[in-house]
Amino acid sequence: MKSRKNNQKLAKNFIKKMTAKRKNYTPAFRAKVALAAQKGDKTIPQLAAQFQVSPQQISTWKARLIEHVTDIFQDNRTRKKVEPTNESELFEQIGRLKMENEFLKKKSAMLND
Questions:
Q1: In which element (H, E) is residue 65 found?
Q2: pTM (predicted TM-score)
Q3: Are 37 and 47 within 8 A, CB to CB?
Q4: Is 40 left (phi over 0), alpha (psi -120 to 50) or beta?
Q5: Residue 6 resides in a domain
Q6: Is 34 exposed, middle or buried (0-12, 13-18, 19+ CB in 10 A)?
Q7: What's the rounded Cα separation, in Å, for the pair 31 and 100?
Q8: Is residue 24 part of a domain?
Q9: How many angstroms from the chain centroid is the CA of residue 113?
Q10: Among 29, 31, 51, 86, which one is least packed by beta carbons within 10 Å?
């Protein structure tokens, strides 16, 4: 009788564990744990007990931290590409603008008189 109740209890616990939701840890928490593991003040089993995470998970996060630490310092800014300009076109445009400016000055002086 006792073994039957014990088996039922074990079956219920097994089903409960199988249907339980997976824990989702925030990136901040994962970083905190990985940095603590990398620091090396405590062993991974000690950190596992402290943060209530499996030692394998801590090792995975630590490895990912080490692998991607260089990404933090990459320069992802894009530089504007300077298009090559033709100097002769620019000088032509300057000449046209000077002529327009002189023309407008003369017309303005005529209207003001």
A1: helix 55-68
A2: 0.51
A3: yes
A4: left
A5: no
A6: buried
A7: 64
A8: yes
A9: 66
A10: 86
Tokens read off for 36: 């603590």
Domain count, the chain: 1
Q: How many Å is the Cα radius of gyration of the chain?
A: 36
Residue 23 domain-assigned (yes or no): yes
pLDDT tens by residue, the chain, 113 residues: 567 777 777 777 777 666 667 788 999 999 999 999 999 999 999 999 999 999 999 999 999 999 998 888 887 777 777 777 788 899 999 999 999 999 999 999 888 87
Placement of tokens 């002189």 in the chain:
102
In a domain, 18, yes or no: yes
Domain region containing 42: 14-73+87-112
